[in-house]
Every structure is written in C-alpha cells, then in structure tokens.
Design goal:
- This protein is 41% helix and 20% strand.
- By secondary structure, it is an alpha/beta fold.
- It has three domains: 284 residues, Aldolase class I (TIM Barrel, Alpha-Beta Barrel); 32 residues, no CATH class; 118 residues, Alpha-isopropylmalate synthase LeuA, regulatory domain (Double Stranded RNA Binding Domain, 2-Layer Sandwich).
- The strands form four sheets. Strands 1-2-3-4-5-6-7-8 form an eight-stranded parallel β-barrel, surrounded by eight helices.
- Strand 15 and strand 16 form a beta hairpin.
- Helix 12 packs across helix 16.
- The structure holds 3-methyl-2-oxobutanoic acid and zinc ion.
- Zinc ion binds next to loops.
Length: 527
C-alpha cells in the first residue's frame, strides 16, 4: 500500500455501483449475451466494485438468465436486479438473484410531475403507495433493497423528500437519486442532495446514492458534486456506456476521487490497476470503441505530442501527468514480441496485461500470434489485446457464419468485385459467391448479405490503425441496422478490406442470434 493509499484508508468510503450490464447495455447496439455478461461481471468483481447491477430480470428471458448466471459467479460484490414496483417484477428479480451471495433488489418508480402525468398517469399519493409497497415486498424477499425515484432531479423537492422518507421507513437500505435525463448541473444536483439531508428525518438509516446521465456532459461532475453533499454510493458504467449520451464513467469518478482526495475527502475500494483491462474488455465485447481523447482510458490520455511536454515528462513525469498510467493498468512498454517469441514469452506478456488464459485459449492466441507475426514485423501490446479480444468475442458470441477467405478487385476503370467464401458453422458447409459494388468493401458487404440471406443497412463505419507503422493492423468498428435494431461488429486484419468483411460478418451473426429473441421491456417503458 502506498503512503497515499494508507492515508486515505481512514476516509469515508464511496460505494461503486456498476451498471454496465444493465444501463450500459441500453446503449444502442451494445447488447451482450450471457457469456459476455459473465466475463464482464468476473472482471468487475476483480475490479472490486461494491455492487454489480446485472440486468432487469422481468424484461426478457435472456435478461433473467443473465442475472441468474452472474449471481452464480460473482464472489465479492453484491449483485443487483432491477424491478419496477410491481409484484411480478420484484418476485422475478428475487428469483434471478437466488444464488447470489449478496442479492440486492433495485426497485424504481418515476416521481416527477411529467412522468406522473404522461407516463404513469397517477397522482402523487398513488406513486407514494406504489413505491412503499414495492420496497416492502422486496424487503420481504431480500435484506438489501435499493429504491430509485426515477427522474428525481425534475421532481418537486417536497414530494421527493416525502418519497425518500417513506421508502426508508419501509425498509430501503439504499436510496438512489437519478438524474434520469441528464438535466441537472453540479450546483443544482448538490442542492438536491443537501436538501434531502436537511429534510428527510430518517436519512441516516439508508445510504444515499446517485445515478447521473450524461446528456449535458455533466454526469461525472454531478456525481462528484453529490459526493461533496454526502452521497455515499455512485452508480456508473465502464467507459460511460449507457442510454443516449451514457452514464457517469466509472473510471473518471474513481480517478477523480483518488487523484483529488484533498477535495473529496473520501475513497473507493476500486483496484485501479484493473481499470484499463476492464475498459478494453467492455469495448471489445460491446463493439463500442472508446474515443481516442476519452479521459483515463482513451488512447491519447497519456500521449504527449508537444515536444515541451515530452521533455517535461521525461525529466519528471509529474510535470505533465497527474496520474500514473501504471496505476490504471496501462502497460508501460509497448513493443513486445516478434516472430521468434515463444509461448512462454506470450503467456508472460498476456499475464502482465491482465489476461489469465487457460491452456487451450493460450494455444489459440499463440497460433494467431504466429500468423500475425508472419505478416507484421513487430507485435505490440495493442496487437495482443486485439488477438485476445477476438478470441473472447468468438468464444462468447453465438456465430453462424465464419469468413473463410476474401478476394477483391478494385481501382480505376475496374468494376469493384468481391469473391467471398463463408463457412456455415451450423452445417459445416463452405459457400462461395461473388458480387460487385461501389467499391471492394461495398461489394464484399453485398456478397455477404446475399450469402447469409440477411438484409442489413450500414449505419456506422469506423476504421483505425491498431498501432503505428505501415504494416499495422486495421480495426474496423461498424454498426448495421437489421429488423429495426442496431448490431455492432468489429474486425481486425493487416488488410483493411478483410477487416471490414470480418466486422460485417460479426454484426450479421449478432443480428441472427437476436432475431428469434423477444425484445423485452426497457425501464423507461413502465411503472
Ligand atoms: O436513469 C434512471 O433513472 C435509471 C433508473 C432505473 C435508476 O436508470
Ligand atoms: Zn439510468
């Protein structure tokens, strides 16, 4: 433990409630299957979050199964399931959480005038009764019950205080104050929390939590303002994923509290060295790329471009770095392995990067590593991350189609053509077809659609180099719309057309996997 960590051990604890698997998964196109959720939950547990919100069990059979599976694997954190204030929702959540070591039911009911009038069509006293009844029922099923007055930041303060006091009296152990539509500002949100502490008589019997959305880019600032006012739990997501503009980013909240303990005078239990690996995992499995200049985990977060900054960092790191990248688990050295490196070196480097692979997984990564080393002189950490990410994606994603090979022609005066070979993983059959298009990428996409029998419209396409250098791998992140829903895919290769085709096949596989599943309800749809 460093001197700074020792000093902060006496400070009040801020609980970190991670909702990547519930609110984060509500990001358009970010849907995760059960195996992916389990993988992320395991990593969140290693990160030492206090609570993992695993899903909304009533919303679909898949969500129920995912919450149940996560509840079964998490060792340390409490596992929460979301429920509206209805008998059915609450009992379903309790059932999904049966195997959890520390189960928490999170019930919510909208309280603002606009939600009461237009969404729920209920009067204040009815909302109050629903909330109290919901908490009472949840408390009869589990010890740990959280209540959220949805759209709290737009709720009349006297009514908000009345609801909070009543649900605490009914047994809520945590009361969470959501800024559901990201409307609040730090001054406004701090004032709401201070008002609750000043007016709710039994407030000391519950933990006050906050849950901020990022519509005005203020989710982290609002959460921290609430901490200054006495909130002791912050709800957040990895990489700030979430509905619309997302939720407060866990890594930003945690690092602000740690780096500016002088201001916030509190601490979290987060093992910060696990932050970067979890961020990479979530980005890989959701297919949502982290923007380069994203605070804490973006590629540029610790890159110094200006010569004067580089000189400063080399002579004394703290001249221009307020955090140590190693404290976040960002690997120090970037150049790692080459063509002649063996399994042992690979395993060791992967371990340093935070990946504990079993023998079969290591063998699979090693084969791909050798293949890549034939195409590329130097293998960097980012290349290894990409190989592991690809393996995890393939082993957790239900896949029907696999790209076997791709040949394209393009250039001026030629009709762009793609010849594609795909393997149907259900029957083992290998199909070959060819198509033309506006360019080789378009030709490959048209061909894949025809072969798989799936119509999809390309909505997003992003190409970036995984590392520097002319022989770098290209990484394509794309989103397609199929059947009114958005599906993401990622592909990497030293050939960018192949990377595009791999990403397109991945998105089509997700669309196929989702096609037969009911869509379920989202929290904003109900009572
Ligand atoms: O944003 C919100 O209000 C929510 C609640 C369900 C807590 O996500
Ligand atoms: Zn939310």
């Amino acid at each position: 433990m460093s001197a700074a960590d020792q000093q902060s051990a006496d400070l009040p604890l801020i609980r970190i409630f991670d909702t990547t698997l519930r609110d984060g998964e509500q990001s358009p196109g970010a849907s995760l299957n059960t195996s992916e959720k389990i993988e992320i939950a395991r990593q969140l547990d290693l990160l030492n979050v206090d609570v993992i919100e695993a899903g909304f069990p009533i919303s679909s059979p898949d969500d129920f199964e995912a919450v149940k599976a996560v509840a079964g694997v998490v060792q340390n954190a409490a596992v929460a399931g979301l429920a509206r204030c209805t008998d059915k929702d609450i009992r379903r959540a309790a059932e999904a959480l049966r195997d959890a070591r520390s189960p928490r039911i999170h019930v919510f009911c909208a309280t603002s005038a606009i939600h009461r009038q237009y969404k729920l069509k209920r009067a204040e006293q009815e909302i109050l009764k629903l909330s109290v009844d919901g908490v009472t029922l949840a408390r009869s099923l589990v010890e740990d019950v959280e209540f959220s007055p949805e759209d709290a930041s737009r709720t009349e303060l006297p009514f908000l205080s009345e609801v909070v006091e009543s649900v605490i009296a009914a047994g809520a152990t945590t009361v969470n104050i959501p800024d559901t539509v990201g409307y609040s500002t730090p001054e406004h949100f701090e004032a709401i929390i201070r008002h609750l502490f000043a007016t709710v008589k039994n407030i000391d019997r519950a933990v006050i939590s906050v849950h901020c959305h990022n519509d005005l880019g203020l989710a982290v600032a609002n959460s921290l303002a609430a901490v200054r006012a006495g909130a002791r739990q912050v709800e957040c997501t990895i990489n700030g994923l979430g509905e619309r503009a997302g939720n407060a980013a866990l890594e930003e909240v945690v690092m602000a509290i740690r780096t500016r303990a002088d201001v916030y005078q509190c601490r979290t239990r987060i093992n910060t060295r696990r932050i970067y690996p979890v961020s990479r995992l979530v980005s890989t499995l959701t297919g949502i790329h982290v923007q380069r200049n994203k605070a804490i985990v973006g590629e540029n977060a610790f890159a110094h471009e200006a010569g004067i900054h580089q000189h400063g960092v080399l002579s004394h790191r703290e001249t221009y770095e307020i955090m140590n990248p190693q404290d976040l688990g960002i690997p120090a050295s970037r150049l790692v392995l080459g063509k002649h490196s063996g399994r042992h070196a690979l395993r060791e480097r992967l371990q340093q990067l935070g990946h504990q692979l079993n023998d079969a997984q290591l063998e699979a990564v090693f084969e791909r590593f050798k293949d890549l080393a034939d195409r590329k002189k130097e293998i960097f950490d980012e290349d290894l991350e990409a190989l592991v990410g690809q393996l995890l994606e393939e082993s957790t994603q239900a896949r029907q189609w696999e790209l076997v090979s791709l040949q394209t022609t393009g250039g001026s005066g030629v009709v762009p053509t793609a010849t594609v070979r795909l393997r149907d993983l259900c029957s083992g059959a290998v199909l070959t077809d060819a198509a033309t298009g506006d360019g080789p990428v378009d030709a490959a996409f048209s061909c894949i659609m025809r072969m798989t029998g799936r119509e999809a419209v390309l909505r997003e396409y992003d190409l970036r180099a995984v590392t520097g250098g002319g022989d770098a791998q290209g990484e394509v992140n794309l989103a397609v719309e199929a059947g009114g829903r958005l599906f993401r895919g990622r592909g990497r290769s030293t050939d960018i057309i192949e990377a595009s085709a791999l990403a397109f096949v991945a998105a089509i596989n997700r669309a196929i996997a989702a096609a037969d599943k009911p869509r379920g309800v989202r929290p904003e749809n109900g009572t």
